[in-house]
Design brief:
By secondary structure, this protein is mainly beta. Helices cover about 10% and strands about 45% of the residues. Strand 7 and strand 8 form a beta hairpin. The mean pLDDT is about 90.
């Protein structure tokens, strides 16, 4: 097998986000944008995580592939991301076996914030996340989202995508 994908230009940024567990899919505003995401995690032979590759299919049929690496935990993490070719993605996808998730993402703008509702396709779980400009930025939960809000899970590593790719959702966390 070839070496893992390497993005040609990596963009570095600070990711500040809050994540919320939902009891189901909310009735989303018509103005939403939806896309499909397949992502898998690359690891060394000893299981050490090396990064994530992601294929995103947009509603207009465009497909983009990325290599992403995050460090840190909780609400604030350092992120490095760059685009890779479809060929690189297809070559490296087999190396992510057993460490994958698929989800439908719905993006809804609320004022200056963008809420993303992730509907996981391989198990019954719905999460909403919002990226923030600063750690102390006030978040008002939109009226279309609040009836289904169970609790915030930003600091619960069991709800991070990597943990979900390995183990699926925590039993106590999947509302029925």
């Amino acid at each position: 097998m070839g070496a893992p994908a390497r993005a040609r230009r990596m963009r570095e940024s600070l990711e500040i986000e809050r994540v919320f567990l939902l009891r189901g899919m909310p009735a989303l505003p018509a103005s939403r944008d939806s896309l499909e995401i397949e992502q898998g995690y690359l690891a060394t032979s000893d299981g050490t995580r090396q990064g994530r590759i992601r294929r995103t299919t947009f509603s207009d049929g465009r497909v983009l592939c990325h290599l992403n690496m995050k460090t840190g935990s909780g609400r604030v993490r350092q992120e490095r991301e760059g685009e890779i070719s479809r060929e690189e993605f297809d070559r490296d996808w087999p190396m992510t076996a057993g460490r994958r998730i698929r989800k439908r993402r719905h993006r809804v703008s609320e004022g200056e914030l963008l809420f993303e509702v992730d509907e996981f396709l391989d198990f019954p779980l719905v999460l909403a996340e919002v990226e923030l400009p600063s750690i102390d930025h006030d978040v008002r939960i939109p009226a279309w989202l609040s009836p289904l809000l169970v609790r915030e899970v930003s600091d619960d590593s069991r709800y991070h995508n990597y943990a979900l790719a390995l183990h699926g959702p925590p039993d106590e966390g999947v509302p029925r």
